[in-house]
Amino acid sequence: MDRLSAYAKRPVAFLLRYVRRRPLSHAAILAAVIGAVACSVSSQYGVKFLVDVLSGNAADGAIWLAFALLVSLIAADNLLWRLAGWITSHAFVGVTGDLRSELFRHLTGHAPNYFSQRLAGTLTGRITATSNAAFAVENLFIWNVLPPCLATLCAIGFLAVVSVPMAAALTAIAALVMLLLFKLAARGTPLHHGFANRAAKVEGELADVIGNMPLVRTFGAIHREHSRFDRTVGRELTARRRSLQYLERVRLLHAVLTIVLTVAVLAWAIVLWQRGQASAGDVVLVCTLGFTVLHATRDLAVALVDVTQHMARLAEAIGTLLQEHELREHPAAVPLAWRSERMPHAAFDNVAFSYPGGRRVFENFTLDITAGRRTGLVGPSGSGKSTALALLQRFHDLERGRILIDGQDIAHITQESLRRAISFVPQDISLLHRSILENIRYGRPEASDVEVRAAAEAARCDFIEALPSGYSTIVGDRGTRLSGGQRQRIAIARALLKDSPIVLLDEATSSLDTEAEEMIRQALDRLMQGRTVIAIAHRLSTLRGFDRIVFLEHGRVLQDGPPDDLMRRRGPYRAMVESEVARLRQAA
Ligand SMILES: Nc1ncnc2c1ncn2[C@@H]1O[C@H](COP(=O)(O)OP(=O)(O)OP(=O)(O)O)[C@@H](O)[C@H]1O
């Protein structure tokens, strides 16, 4: 799916990729539109034919034949448009579905770093913007760009019947007018890009503030946010006005050209008629076809500018969304192999790592994680504990060294099998805005209701039955309708259901009441049983139950051993525990 990134800078090719997926329906639309335009322009020739027949004392048969021809052309013209409209409602709508689905797949393939650097609202807004822009461009092309182009060609063909020099002159003028408009439309592209960029920023800011409403309220920042939003919208309005005013200037230029050319064509036709070189029907034909050509170029001018605006939005959106995935599957990646009767062993082997643009977090970091044991990572803030857990899950690639699970380099195993082997319970629990049942089942989608309930019971989620709709209760955005302790137990139940042999835990620092803490301790105890556990543990009660403690500072191991041993020795671990005990005593 990563090959989608090849289209990041090629918006037209990106659009054609989806058009090619539905070749038959797009070809049928094209054929219907070509037919409709041909009938529409031919009907003007039909009018000339009828006028000539009527003014030439022709027989009744010839008059009714001219009438039938004209009526058939008008009917075909209208019906073919409707046929094209009907097919577009299937094909163009289908394209917006295919496109969003692939963009979503690509977006979800990005590493966590990609998301941490961007506002979620900007990203989701860009998926919608891309789909809307693709729909608009397809519609504009079929209804507003193609018909005037075809109408111009057909009209010039018919004009040649009356006067070849007039047809030649109109061809040259139409070509010049179109070229001029194309050039002017292209010159306005940076303005349209600027507007697209500003519009995406507004969406991103909106989503960011709405997603953080509790924070905004707590800091009494509602008015501040109102003013900030007004400023962001103000910048978008300015960019939008500039873009639209540019379009209006282009349209004005075209309007002036149209007036001048219409006068010239009409006068030319009348002179031809005065000299007896054209019939009355020819004058009617020249008038209607001349108008067709001039109106077509005007419609084209308007449409082209709209197309450039939508293409600018599309280009801006795919430029961000279709960036290459930072973490790619190794070409020879194989699934992680481990024997279920034996817990896996993990190892950091001479690892060097820094965040992009950040300072070095690890340099020659080596650590063996004992299979089936509980290893606690402790150390001051910024020492690299969370980064170590992230690297083990391959959220980032290493600069140097290897991370091994049962001797297999995680850079060479499939990401899916790695994720299956690891359960991660983060500090900041994420829940989807779905029911409790669905949230727990996220750990193993095929689990039965009975299995989900068993996992919830094991994780001491006794509170679920007391909720208004029990397991069907919707948890609210990111689980806001549950307490912190309840969210943690749901996350533990989810991890229990996933039943991975490796458990990574970033214990929450926020303090809970004793009862909730005891329940979480019991739930965690069940989760950790018989698995290889690496945990960033903050509570002394959790640390005491560990087989081994690794004390990190500046990405280096300062102490390593069973907690009781470390407590017997003077060192950073004992100092940390003593200061924590003193803090707890003071608080009590
Ligand atoms: N996404 C990121 N981009 C850039 N730098 C980062 C990122 N995440 C962490 N860092 C930096 O990497 C270093 C290690 O951070 P890490 O979060 O691993 O520490 P930690 O020991 O888990 O700290 P804490 O106990 O406060 O969570 C810090 O200097 C931090 O500023």
Automatic annotation (TrEMBL):
Annotated localization: Cell membrane
Record key words, sorted: ATP-binding, Membrane, Nucleotide-binding, Transmembrane, Transmembrane helix
Top-level taxon in the UniProt lineage: Bacteria
A single GO molecular function term of this UniProt record: ABC-type transporter activity
Principal cellular location given in the protein's record: membrane
Cellular component aspect of the GO annotation: plasma membrane
Transmembrane segment boundaries: 27-47, 62-81, 140-161, 167-186, 250-273
Ranges of residues in domain ABC transporter: 346-579
Protein topology in the membrane: Multi-pass membrane protein
Domain ABC transmembrane type-1 residues, every copy: 27-309
InterPro entries: AAA+_ATPase (IPR003593), ABC1_TM_dom (IPR011527), ABC1_TM_sf (IPR036640), ABC_transporter-like_ATP-bd (IPR003439), ABC_transporter-like_CS (IPR017871), P-loop_NTPase (IPR027417), Type_1_exporter (IPR039421)
Purpose: Part of an ABC transporter complex. Transmembrane domains (TMD) form a pore in the inner membrane and the ATP-binding domain (NBD) is responsible for energy generation.
Family according to the record: Belongs to the ABC transporter superfamily.
UniProt-recorded name of the protein: ABC transporter
Source organism per UniProt: Reyranella soli
